[in-house]
Amino acid sequence: MSPTGSGHDTGGTSGTNSTDRPASSAAAPSGSRAAAITAFHAGLHGPTWRIAGWGSADLQRVRFEALLRAAGYRGGSVLDWGCGPGDLYFHLCSVHLPMDLPVDYTGVDLEPRMVELATSRGVPNVALLPPGRIPQTPRGRYDYVFASGIFQFPDPEDPLYYLTILEQMYDISRRAVAVNFLSAQRPEAARAPDELYVDPVVAARFAAALTDRWVLDHGYHPQAGDFTLALLK
Fold this sequence. Notes:
By secondary structure, the protein is of the alpha/beta class. Strands 3-2-1-4-5-7-6 form a 7-stranded mixed sheet, sandwiched between helices. Strand 6 and strand 7 form a beta hairpin. It is globular, with a radius of gyration of 16 Å. The two termini are 25 Å apart.
């Protein structure tokens, strides 16, 4: 996450300075969680990192870097699951620029506003993903599947929904999946009552059941507030 704040990232939520809340744009298994995601983003305006739900461009960038690092990203096709306004695309462009390589990117999001915004910014291959659906795109499988900040809210009807989505991501990846979570090791004083805090031990056990090649990075965020999990093939 970021050197300032500690959680998912917009003003008025958890974190040492209430500026660390993630973008939550993802396929939701229930209408209630999808509604929470949409309601959260509806009131956000300004720079795209804030519309996505982060407290600063640095908060967003540090998470992107953690995703790519954990996945061992070395170029290839990318599916951005819960793409928001498409900021990961531009981050990938900056990574590829010194190598003069094209960016092979596809983004999906459950919010029409996000899809429209990403498209208006020139982000390629962005599509709407209805709640509870698996991405159905012409490519079908991707070298990497990334998701940043999509597991912000719990789902009382399906408390482990994030594991289901992780497995779906793994099934359509060729090289790796990488996602981030708010950590259950975050101090109580830095938590928000409406957010999902995942136990990294649970995440690690799930990862080990899918593959013997996985990475859990819990060291990039102050107060152990966030972690990134990558499932490698």
